[in-house]
């Protein structure tokens, strides 16, 4: 499983506001006269750490503004190799002690452990929600739903498209939007599907295809999003999984506006072309 950089960055921003910021404030003073060529070389060999650990470590490194380089030595342990790469670490660690004070390494390691724990918990929560939502999506797809189609085109690249509302007992369960465009203002083609449970968006799938002029081939972008109570709990973008924090939507979201679509003329308002 891959953890997206975006998720790591969110954790980095979140944790940059806690008590260890005081240590960061001492950085400039601690660096006066320091050797800027030194850095922490972390030579890794043998078994890899648990999933997500590097995300926590790298986020904490950025927060503390530590010069750091990780080298993956592979599974085979070569005697003396780690010592050869890390021979200057002690000099840099002495410099870091002046910057952050005694016990800096213990505080640093504790932050990494806390962040790693939060990341793993969030990952599991996201997986639990996505599993339940996936089952509900399959259930909705198996239903015999009433459909209402709204064909449309516009001046911002949409050549031929259709929005379909799927409902059961006047309750919208699913909305799809598929069509072809000019591959300029709009994609060459797209397939969107939005699923609702108790009136709330739970799953969003958006696939866009477009011509790549550099490779002269058709490329595809795919984003899947899982929502709980209007909060994004998991996202898969082009196969890369992430668990964003503090990302939410409301009734103004385009997908909710499509859910309330009642006449074709409303599409122009919902998909308003940008001013040229």
UniProtKB/TrEMBL annotation:
Q: What protein am I looking at? A: Lipoprotein
The record lists the organism as Sphingobacterium ginsenosidimutans
């Amino acid at each position: 499983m891959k953890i997206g950089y975006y998720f790591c960055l969110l954790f980095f921003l979140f944790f940059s506001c806690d008590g260890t910021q005081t240590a960061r404030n001492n950085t400039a003073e601690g660096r006066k006269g320091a050797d800027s060529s030194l850095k922490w070389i972390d030579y890794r060999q043998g078994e890899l750490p648990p999933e997500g650990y590097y995300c926590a470590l790298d986020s904490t490194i950025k927060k503390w503004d530590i010069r750091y380089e990780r080298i993956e030595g592979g599974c085979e342990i070569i005697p003396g190799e780690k010592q050869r790469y890390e021979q200057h670490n002690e000099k840099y660690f002495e410099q870091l002690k002046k910057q952050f004070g005694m016990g800096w390494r213990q505080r640093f390691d504790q932050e990494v452990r806390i962040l790693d724990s939060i990341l793993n918990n969030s990952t599991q929560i996201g997986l639990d929600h996505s599993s339940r939502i996936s089952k509900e999506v399959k259930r909705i797809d198996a239903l015999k739903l009433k459909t209402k189609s709204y064909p449309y085109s516009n001046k911002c690249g949409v050549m031929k498209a259709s929005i379909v509302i799927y409902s059961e007992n006047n309750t919208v369960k699913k909305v799809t939007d598929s069509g072809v465009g000019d591959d300029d203002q709009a994609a060459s083609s797209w397939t969107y599907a939005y699923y609702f449970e108790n009136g709330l968006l739970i799953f969003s799938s958006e696939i866009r295809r477009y011509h790549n002029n550099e490779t002269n081939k058709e490329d595809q972008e795919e984003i899947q999003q899982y929502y709980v109570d209007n909060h994004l709990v998991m996202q898969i973008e082009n196969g890369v999984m992430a668990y964003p924090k503090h990302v939410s939507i409301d009734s103004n979201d385009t997908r909710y506006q499509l859910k309330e679509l009642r006449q074709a003329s409303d599409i122009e308002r919902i998909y308003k072309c940008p001013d040229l």
